[in-house]
Specification:
Helices cover 4% and strands 39% of the residues. By secondary structure, the protein is mainly β. It has a 13-stranded antiparallel sheet with strand order 1-2-3-4-5-6-7-8-9-10-11-12-13, with helices on one face. A hairpin with a 6-residue loop joins β1 and β2. The radius of gyration is 20 Å and the shape is elongated. It starts with 6 loop residues before the first helix and ends in a 9-residue tail after the last strand.
Amino acid sequence: MTTRLTALSALAASLTLTACGAGGAPPALAGTATPVYNKETGRLERLESDTNHDGRVDTIAHMDGVRLTFIEIDRDFDGRSDRWEYYRDAPGTAAAARAPDGRSVLERAEEANGHDDRVTRRVFYVDGVIARVEDDVDLDGRVDKWEVYEAGILRQMDLDTDGVGRATRRLVYDASGQVIRVEEDPDGDQQFTPVSPAGKGGGRS
């Protein structure tokens, strides 16, 4: 599966504005982004960036002054946004987990991985660290892959391998990312039972 990069790395690398006045961009978002200010209040509203230099904006950071609220990204540069990241205030959150504005933390991300704007993948974070994912891999309008993370490490993946609208197979991972157990729930009673010995499991990802 194609690796999905968050907009945080793009922002940190490309949004290098010089702060100007009270409404200027925060220093951590300081190069190639264009600030958009409210015409009445002078407050910073957006930072627009053309990360691949094709002449079209592909990353828009929505700001409330110096606070980041959400980012929309055009990952494949086709002229439409296909990933949206939502942020919240981050009091008490470790600085390493905060967004480039130093004030916010990633809370949720949504992606449209089909041929339209319909959200097919949702990623949930706790204090900026990935916690779980819901994914419609076959784009039929139903979630068919669920991932659970511990401290940012994938520990469990549930799959709907039969297209029945619920998980029928479970992959359990160790801390190094290796599958240690494969389980199945063929009758839908939510009781998963092992079907293969450690290290011999399979499944889609």
